[in-house]
Amino acid sequence: MSLASFKLKLAALPEPLRMGIGLGLGFFVTLTLVVLVMVVGFGYMARIYDDLERITLVNNVKIELAHTMKYAQRDRAVSLYSLALIKDAFEKDEELQHFDRKAEDFMKAWSKLQSMEMNADERALAARINKLIRERSRIVQNAIAYAVKHHGLVAAEHMRKIAIPGQQVVADEINNLLELQQALIRQAGASAADSYTKARRIMLWLCTVTILITIVVAVIVLRQVLRQSRELEYKALFDDLTGLPNRALFFDRLGQAALMYENESKPFSIVVVDLDRFKEVNDTLGHHIGDLLLRHVAQNISATMRRTDTVARLGGDEFVLLLPSAGAESAEIIVKKLLSALCQRVNLEDSVVEVVASMGIASYPEHDVDITRLLLKADMAMYAAKRANVGYRIYTPEIEAVAARNLELQNELRHAIEHDQLLLHFQPKISHHTGCIMGVEALVRWNHPQRGLVPPDDFIPLAEASGLIQPLAQWVMQAALQQSVKWHEAGHTFSISLNLSTRNLLDGDLPLRVSRLLASYHGRPDWLVFEITESAVMAEPARALETLNKLEKMGIRISLDDFGTGYSSLSYLKKLPVSEIKIDKSFIKDMELDASDTVIVRSTIALGHNLDRDMGFADRAGL
To answer: 340 and 362, same structural domain?
Structure first.
């Protein structure tokens, strides 16, 4: 594998893994150097120890043996001279025995010394000593025989001239041996000192390299820790997708703004920004386009705001602005400018998206001095603007009262659904030709224990916004089937029309639930007619059409309600499996006074008949 390909493979690994490999290699090299320092140090220490052991155990023994030989050789020389001067035979014999003992001591020491390990110089010197011993042995024996027979100065002179010089030659070689041993001792000491110096130099070098590598690894680890710390701090305070401050940093700056007001009495405002129909962008164009839209909005808001303002993303498609030194009136001016800059068409990877936003404004201390409640009030104002489709709203107590009432009403509606406080009103559908009832439309009402009969306009939008529309629709279908069973048992065979909201229509499990309800009440699919609006279909046409086709295949008829108010009626009319078209009441109520309405109604009726659709007039007042 080439170095370049290795680098590419390494770069492809996740950063934590690359960092771990680098640090692991760094620590491995450091550990290897530490072990190497120990090995080298112990190796040189062992060598020094061997040299010193050789000095103390080998060379010292050799020196001691050489000294023994030297002393024995000296005593032999004295014995030879004394042997020549002694007259008494017994004394001569005793001196001769002393000579032999010293000769024996000499040979024992010499034999032991020769048995020890020797270098070349020592072996050469030993060879010379052995040669001298052999050469001088005969001369010494002849001198001893002469001394045994003679005595006095003549014999002593003979010893001095003939025998003792040979002993001196051997003694000189022994001295050379002693000097050689002392030289070896000095050499061993110098070698030990040199080994120590080298060991210290190498260990110092290795320790320096180890320290440097350890410092490098420590610096890398420290930089990595600091970088990860900065990344964690960034992730803790900033949004990954847009790079804007997140909720934590926004509340921190919000707290600082509140403290600044205490010191400088400068008001500030909060603006909550929420994108309208953002879910549709995600569902129809994909989350990738949704992310691009959020980045675009974040950049657009940041570019429009002042340098002192804080733009944060709370999550999803919700942004929040902190406007220092801006009361409600100043904040309103800024928001108008922002709406103008933000609400435009934008091209995102060949997908055109219409940016629409709703904003709510709340000011400190005008609307509240608690920053948490202040943000909540800005949020209430934003939802009020979204419901009214007016772009922005400034918080007012009435907005909070409506929000509180809606929340209370939402909880009461949930309780009403669970405890059967709802009822159905049935509006008859009269045949234009026969004047007979051909069916009824079920309209839900809420019989509130304290409020009385609550009209559908007060709770159906709330149910759609809160997610209660699903259980509400389930209750309506169940109650309608119960009533239908009773009517069929009484001989009335007309159908019941039920209105489906957008959420109902986009519920993929709706056909299955309808099928189970029909089975539980032993009902037939033609007992039911589901009424839909064009706006409900247009929210997500593909999913809505899939649900409608499933219901139509089950045998349930589909009615298109409020026909004529949508912007794609004709294009979708041929695709939808509808068997009935209901003209919106806005075209009916002034038909006698407005000729245009008359023309529209006649044309629509003709269109429906040509398409083999039943025609009707919409006049519903509830789900």
So the answer is: yes
